Input
Amino acid sequence: VKNVAGFDLLRPVVGSRGRLGVLTSVTLRLFPLPEADALLLWGSEDARALVGAARAVCTAAVVPTSVVLAADGAAARLLVRVTGRRATVDAECELLARAAGMPPRRLEGDEGARLRTDVRDAGVGRAAVTLRARPGRLAELVERAEGWRASGAAAGWCCDVPAGELCVYAVAVPERADLTTEAARAGFSVVGTSPESRAAALVEGVRAAFDPDALLWGGRW
Output
């Protein structure tokens, strides 16, 4: 790997989300806040109806800041975040809307930030399991998650579409075990589960000490 002497440990440590060790010091390159921060929102009662739009957005000529497909309660939502210069954001939002094939609702400011936070933190405190699948199996993964939600085994789920990771929020720990077993049998990779109560308390204590203002991502382990 370029500019690396020996093993490149940076990427696996950063990508492990705390599983390989605790980061005690981090040096970051800072960028100014974007001039515009827009959130495109598509909604449907059935998340399966949004899979095509999610795929189209991810293969469009622009790269959004994030593409999230989520279902919690009675509604499913596709959220696409676009940031940058105002003129660029406006043009990219129009392109993504055309790619999706249906008009979105555009949110900015506090309204968009609140919705992103609500979706991000929907799994906090729940018995969750994170699954991973190849991009070509996104529809199958969503189909399985919607089946769990319809049966009452899962309260909801949230999918990072470009990464192919879907976090399912089970209604209780026993159901989480059942979902984990079923997902593994279906050929999906089980990449993580939420910690048990004692471990969760320890994690929350560390998080509160290092991030007292809750500025960092709080909805994924």
Helices lie at 10-15, 51-58, 86-100, 109-120, 138-151, 173-185, 197-210. Residues 86-100 form the longest helix (15 residues). The two ends are 28 Å apart (CA to CA).
